[in-house]
Amino acid sequence: MQEPVRVSVMALDPVLEAGTRSALEDSPEVRPVTEEQRPDVTVVVVDRVADPVLDLVRRIRAAEHRPEVVLVAAELAPAEALHAIATGARGLLRRRATSGPRLAHAVLAAAGGDCAVPPDLLDGLLEHRAEGAASHVPDAWGVAGLSDRERAVLRLVADGRETSEIANELSYSVRTVTTVLHDITQRFRLKNRAHAVAYALRAGLL
Predict the structure, then answer these.
(1) Which residues, 6 or more positions from 61, have their beta carbon under 8 angstroms from its beta carbon?
(2) What confidence score (pLDDT) does residue 155 get?
(3) How many CB atoms lie under 10 A from the CB of residue 7?
(4) What pLDDT, on a 0 to 100 scale, did the predictor assign at position 30?
(5) For the packed helices 78-87 and 119-127, what is the interaxial angle rounded to 10 degrees?
(6) Among 122, 125, 129, 124, residue whose Cα is nearest residue 204
(7) What is the pLDDT of residues 6-18, one digit of tens each?
(8) What is the number of alpha carbons within 13 Å of residue 143 lying toward its C-beta?
(9) Residue 146 pLDDT more than 80?
(10) For residues 64, 104, 106 and 73, what is the CA-based torsion angle, rounded to 10 degrees?
């Protein structure tokens, strides 16, 4: 039997932190732990995704055991979501729409290397085009762009789909999906799938 994913919770409000941990305890696939116990995923519960929160995500990701990060925010605008993903967050949830099962799903997706974003927020990300965004992405985006297949795969990654689900929906093999994602991250020198989604969105390629 596979070991449960170890997950820690960080929040300024102790009551909110305790409630989030309690919600996760109902899922047998995750096991709440402390930061000292080297979690696989850290859930960060905040009001807004401001600069101090992005700095916190960077510090968490820089830890020796490099836990993934799932952000749960009371307010989450498309621009803030883009910054969070580019900083290294693997999952984004709005607090009002976060149930125990939904949070556990985001944690498991993050632990498995996928990026979970609410569908309505994804729509906002796709429509969001910050002025000057192209100056923040590698020049290669403007030259090579993305193929239709790469766009299709990245859209499903951004929607929180797992590799096997993407393969089934697009009628590809799991190996093909893995290769497509690997090629994108290597070609544009990106850190991971979430980073690729963030930069593609900011460049207006999705």
Answers:
(1) 67, 68, 69, 87, 88
(2) 81
(3) 28
(4) 93
(5) 100
(6) 129
(7) 999 999 888 889 9
(8) 5
(9) no
(10) -90
Task: Give CA separation, 93 vs 98, 130, 143, 200, in Å.
Answer: 7, 22, 33, 20
Q: What share of the chain is helix, strand, coil (3-state, %, to 5)?
A: 55, 15, 30
Report the pLDDT value the prediction gives residue 200, as an integer from 0 to 100: 67
pLDDT in tens, 78-89: 778 877 887 888
Tokens of 85: 């993903």
Q: Give dist(CA 17, CA 180) in Å, integer.
A: 38
Q: 72 is written with which tokens?
A: 């749960």
Q: Do 18 and 25 meet the contact criterion of CB atoms below 8 Å apart?
A: no
Give me 28's structure tokens.
């047998």
Handedness of CA 8, 49, 118, 96 (dihedral sign): positive
Q: What is the mean pLDDT of residues 104-124?
A: 79
Work out the angle at residue 180's Cα, subtended by the Cα atoms of residues 54 and 192, and round it to the nearest 5 degrees.
20
Tokens at residue 75, please?
Answer: 């307010």
Q: Give the pLDDT confidence score for residue 122 in this predicted structure.
A: 63
User: Please, what is the Cα angle at 109 between 40 and 150, to 5 degrees?
Assistant: 125
**Burial letters for 28-57: b for 16+ Cβ neighbours within 10 Å, e otherwise?**
eebbbbeeeeebbbbbbbbeebeeebbebb
Structure tokens at 4: 């449960």
